[in-house]
Specification:
Number of helices: 0
Strand order of the largest sheet: 1-8-7-6-5
Structural class: mainly beta
Number of domains: 2
Helix content: under 10%
Distance between the termini: 45 Å
Order of helices and strands: EEEEEEEE
Number of strands: 8
Strand content: 35-45%
C-alpha cells in the first residue's frame, strides 16, 4: 500500500520571486478570445525567460466572516483543465483559498478546487455558471471571463 499524498484538486501558491508582469492582452485562439499575460523571469544563471499564461479564473475575498481555520479567505471560479484522458472538455469548478504559513514561516495560499454540483463537461472557453458546490457557501462571485481587465 502506498502512503503517497493525493494532491488532486489541491495546491499551494507562494509569493512570486524574480517575476515581472511584462505584458497582457487578448489573443484569439481558434476563434475564441482569451486573456493572456507574459511573465518575465530570470533563472539562477541570469538567463531571461518569458512565459505565456492564459487566464482560467479569478479569486476574490470571501464575502463572509471566517468561522474557523478551515473557512476560506478567497473564493472564485475556475474553468479547469480537462480530466486525465479527456482532451476536448474542461470542468467548471469553484476554487477556495486559505491563507496559511509554512513550517519555515513562509506565507502561502492553500488552494482547493471543487467541482460544481451539476457539472457536465463544458466546451473550452464557455462561460462559467454561478452555482455553489457547498450548501452553506455563497455563490461564487462574477466570472473572470466576463471582466474586461486583469
Amino acid at each position: 500500500m502506498s502512503n503517497q499524498y493525493d494532491n488532486t484538486n489541491n495546491g499551494a501558491l507562494f509569493p512570486a520571486k524574480n517575476l515581472t508582469l511584462h505584458s497582457q492582452g487578448p489573443i484569439n485562439v481558434n476563434g475564441s478570445d482569451g486573456k493572456f499575460v507574459v511573465i518575465q523571469s530570470q533563472d539562477s544563471k541570469g538567463n531571461v525567460h518569458m512565459d505565456l499564461y492564459q487566464q482560467v479564473g479569478s479569486l476574490k475575498p470571501y464575502p463572509e466572516e471566517k468561522k474557523g481555520e478551515k473557512s476560506p479567505d478567497l473564493i472564485g471560479d475556475v474553468l479547469a483543465l480537462p480530466k486525465a484522458g479527456e482532451r476536448d472538455s474542461a470542468f467548471d469548478m469553484t476554487v477556495f483559498g486559505r491563507d496559511k504559513v509554512s513550517k519555515n514561516g513562509q506565507p502561502f495560499i492553500s488552494v482547493n478546487l471543487v467541482e460544481k454540483k451539476s457539472n457536465a463537461p463544458v466546451a473550452n472557453n464557455q462561460a462559467m455558471q454561478n452555482e455553489s458546490p457547498l450548501p452553506d457557501a455563497p455563490a461564487p462571485l462574477s466570472s473572470a471571463f466576463g471582466s474586461k481587465t486583469f
